[in-house]
Amino acid sequence: MRTGSDPARLCVPRAEVFPLIARIHDSPYESAHEGPAKLAMRINSRFFWPTLRKDVKDYAMSCDVCQKTKADHRAKAGFLRPNPVPDRPFEWISFDLITGLPFSDGFDAIFVVVDRCTKYALFVPCQGTMNTVEFAHLFVLQVIFRFGIPDHIISDRDGRWISEFWRSVAEELRIHLSLSSSHHPQHDGQTEIVNQRLETMLRAYVQGDRQGWSQWLPALAHAYNSSVHSTTGYSPYFLLYGFEPKGSADFIGGTNRYEQRPLLVSERATEFVLSMELHRQRARDAIAMAQEQAAWTFNEGRRPETFPVGSRVLVNPHSLELVDVKGTGKKLVQKMLGPFLVQEQVNPLVYKLAMPNTYPMNPVINIEHLRRYQESDGSVMGVNRPVLPDPRNSEILAAEEYEVERIVAWRRNKSRSNRLEFLVRWKGYSPVYDTWEPASHLANAYEILREFKAIHNLTC
User: Where does the source fall among the domains of life (predicted)?
Assistant: First the structure.
């Protein structure tokens, strides 16, 4: 076929269309998995059939190799969904644990609780190794006995907070649990910010005595709660109790901001109630406005996306930090892994996937780490399409075995349900290639792991 002065092109019968596309697209000597636009231009210069561009796009977009190896340059999927603004103090709370601290009076962790209405925070010293029952007792003593039973709790997926016991306690107390998905800090950004603030304050005061940090917590909690919060425009203390705590600064210059005109008891009570409700309503309006602004900023440039239950998706191993080898090897790891079956849509932004045991991770994943898998029926196209094997296939893992030289350190990974992990120095590699690994990845270094646990008194 020839059009005008263009060179002649070969007309391709329908039965040979997809074998031709496969030969050019899949070959390392032709297009080497070129994208649909460039591939169509390449084929169109030599061949012709009426639906050329559509067929080329269908083939390239459903290529398993392309989907797993190419970066997704589209806008990120999913919009921020702010939590509802609370109506009263300690109706909605969030909590977290700061762990990995040196022992201080028998404590090595801090239980941080934040009220979403007033922004009031609790800093409670505790033991990072406490079990679920011990945590439940701590929660009852520090939260319920002081402020009542909350309606909603926001937290990450620490093993204690996803346990059957804690879920049963929450159900019995009519508490709704809102748990984060893998690697999605926006779910509980409030507590993360408070954690950072507390850690900053501790660093400022405990440099000379790092084992005495627990003694600073009451003073630092008072300082935090009596400071004006940037979102509400009030101090958390004022919104919770209705007055500002008196401090030494109130007497500087001989003035006292608490001196007021005399009021009858009934007048003072009425004024207090009306003033309290007015200030709290202003705080709620400020929180709503801040959330709306945050959502607008976060959602700008993002796109909607949904995955039906029963469909298959790919998972980004880089944003979820699933890559096991650092350094130059990381550049050659697939951009996406899978595909995995969608088992459940937890909410519009979170999905539960069916994942094999070779992926020891939380299968509840935020949409921003997922990509729709374009299914391809090779039998309809009449070709055998290339498929990349699962890199966690046992045979591949065995072929890529690395030798452990020694274990450098250990930690509790909160994003992996407080999983115990070890910093591994690989034989023949410098410290820049050290990686954090769970014990399940160190089966061939049993003696090294056993000795390290014994030295550091690790029993689990």
Answer: Eukaryota
